[in-house]
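User: I'm new to structure prediction. If I give you an amino acid sequence, what do you actually give back? Let's try with this one:
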Amino acid sequence: MATGSTDKVRIALVGCGRIMPAHLWGYKRLKEAGYERFEITALVARRIEDALRFRKRGEGPGPREQAMPPGDPLAAPHIYLDEFQPDVEVNVYTDYREMLKEERVDAVDIYASLFVHHEIAIAALEAGKHVMVEKPMGITVRACRRMCDAAERAGKVLAVAENARYGQATRMRRWAIEQGLIGKVQMLLHGGIGGFWSPDGIIADTPWRHKKVLGGGGPTIDLGVHFFDVYRYIIGEVDEVYASVRTFEPKRYRRDELGRVLDEVDVDVDDTFFAIVHFKDGAIGQITFSWAGRG
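Assistant: Good question. You get back a string of structure tokens that encode the predicted 3D arrangement of the chain. For your 295 residues, that looks like this:
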């Protein structure tokens, strides 16, 4: 069993994938800021080596090759748990159900594949644990509702790790609106076409993002949750949405530095969306994004 002070919140991390370093840096910075009343006592991954990759320096495989440009959370530098909690024993598991039976944890932080978010979250809540889950919250609206119902039945906290609203620029915009510096918001225009992976690269070197049963959708789901959370935070609740989606690139590829194709995936989710948004306070907006875009 994990050791440590009994008055600390004991946390299990489930899913040791590419987003893990960003979260570990967050935990490290909490420690540096003086928040000491927690410790990470368990790691869960389908492959044991993925968990060992983060437990102690030199113990498991080396850091993964970065697949995103600098500044993206997926490009956070590698970090090990023993860098900021060297005296805590961390157990590793390949099955979250086994962990829930054996570990005395208070909370479960889930970074596993999207299509199992609801299964892990509901099991943890039913085991009496608080839960935080990476965005997107779940594979479908029904799955998300099941998670909320489980949290209500258990009387435990269910949170989504939606980070975009906490960015400095987002908070500054909300403050400016609250202070009346720009008047009442009437219109919103937000958009982006193309970028690092356009027109047909496999996003973040993660083919599952292009499969509906694994990722739920394309940028509509992956990034749309960020956009809508930010603008609900800044402007207010949404009343109506009208939207269109398209898949302009039916295949996506991973290429080497010479442009040679190393891998390809057939796409069955959107790569582009256009949304017209009506806010309850009368503002209107257009939110657009695309992973495609040639030329």
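You can read the tokens as a compact description of the fold. Here is one thing that stands out. The domain at 9-164 is CATH 3.40.50.720 (Rossmann fold).
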